[in-house]
Amino acid sequence: MNLLYLNHYAGAPALGMEFRPYYLAREWVRLGHRVQMVACATSHVRATAPTPRGRPVEQPEHQDIDGIDYLWFPGPPYQGNGLGRVKNIWAFLSQVWRAAPGIARHFRPDVVIASSTYPMDIWVARRLARLAGAKLVFEVHDLWPLSPIELGGMSPHHPFIRLCQKAEDDAYRDADVVVSMLPKVHAHMAGRGLDLRKLHIVPNGITLDEWEGTPEPLREDVAGAVAAARAAGRTVVGYAGSMGLPNALDTLLDAAKRLRDAGAAIAFVLVGGGHERARLAERVRTEGLEASVTMLAPIPKRQIPSFLAGIDIAYIGWQRVPIYRFGIAPNKLMDYMMAGCAVLHSVEAGNDPVAEAGCGLTVAPEAPDAVAEGLRRLAALPAAERRAMGERGRAFVQAHHTYPVLAQRFIDAVR
């Protein structure tokens, strides 16, 4: 089949997030399908901007990445989630809307997938699908507009929220297939008009080739921080990923302060970037946590296996918000589990892969005492017991969350 994947934030290993579109598309190419990725060249989640011809994208340009035909559209730069991001979304969608007849004529898709985090891309994808006589698929990352309402505090009556709601309702009405990464969405989607016979669950996962062979060595500062903690006889707790409010890293710092005051031999190495990184680093400095907490810049994805191999416990946390009742599908947790890490999971959600796999402990979210106690319990276990937890996590991911498996599930849903 010819699969057109419309995802504003689609990335690749050399570019940064989002990775899921790339991994699914690469597997589809391996299965003999043709894939065109339609994405915006400017994104707040991408580490490196694409430059197909060695210069910034100024007009729609094609770029081959591992057999996937990326069609990049330019977009205005922005920071944060304000008006600048809205302008970026509008610029991208309006350009693809105008280009739709040419895309449909030249690529001739059999399937058009609307997969941006926001739902308004469904209108552009619907236009493409109708022009090409293709099947229309709506892929759900997060439930918009519920996510900005419940996580961002936006009013349900805000014009942007009303626009998102119209898009979500149109998607459930017009899509031939709906694919959700979140596993507990059935009641919500049915309540918004979806015929549940259209719904298929395809979660996030990992790609096996990133875990084969010798991993890329860690950047010197990260390797040094881990080695220093080990040399001091400390249990090393690691975090690798975005540093934003949804990641609940304030809770981890609060727990670190409690453990420091109690004299626990636990060190924290946090690697990543994001909107909250500077503020969190200032907390570490002003609250005297430098002796036990080290915050470092993001590392390339290919170094993640080396980082996770060097720590004893991996941390992932969430805010306590109602939106997680529909389930969670975190990429970083898949990496933690594939690395064989014992995991401390601070969450209250409709699903819990850590509990399902038996690969760590789950404690309440936004509860520093519970996080501190969970870390203390994991640190007190014999290393062999933590390794056994990690092996259970790895087996769980290999059985249910590898991209060859997920890509085939997606194709089966489409068919």
Describe this structure in words.
The chain has 415 residues and is α/β, with parallel strands linked by helices. It folds into two domains: 2-201, Glycogen Phosphorylase B (Rossmann fold, 3-Layer(aba) Sandwich), CATH 3.40.50.2000; 209-400, Rossmann fold. The protein has 15 helices and 14 strands. An eight-stranded mixed β-sheet has the order 3-4-2-1-5-6-7-8, with helices on both faces. It has a six-stranded parallel β-sheet with strand order 11-10-9-12-13-14, with helices on both faces. Helix 1 links the parallel strand 1 and strand 2. Helix 1 packs across helix 15 (403-414), helix 3 runs parallel beside helix 5 (159-174) and helix 8 crosses helix 13. The radius of gyration is 22 Å and the shape is globular. 46% of the residues are buried. The model has no long low-confidence stretch (mean pLDDT 95).
Which features characterize this protein?
415 residues, alpha/beta, Rossmann fold, 2 domains, 8-stranded mixed sheet, 6-stranded parallel sheet, 15 helices, 14 strands, 41% helix
Give the helices and strands, then pairings.
Blueprint: E1 2-6, H1 20-30, E2 34-40, E3 61-65, E4 68-73, H2 83-107, E5 111-114, H3 121-132, E6 135-140, H4 146-150, H5 159-174, E7 177-180, H6 186-191, E8 199-201, H7 220-231, E9 235-240, H8 249-261, E10 266-271, H9 277-286, E11 293-296, H10 304-309, E12 313-317, H11 331-338, E13 342-346, H12 353-357, E14 360-363, H13 368-380, H14 383-400, H15 403-414
Parallel strand pairs: 1-2, 1-5, 2-4, 5-6, 6-7, 7-8, 9-10, 9-12, 10-11, 12-13, 13-14
Antiparallel strand pairs: 3-4
Helix pairs in contact: 1-15, 2-3, 3-5, 8-13, 11-14
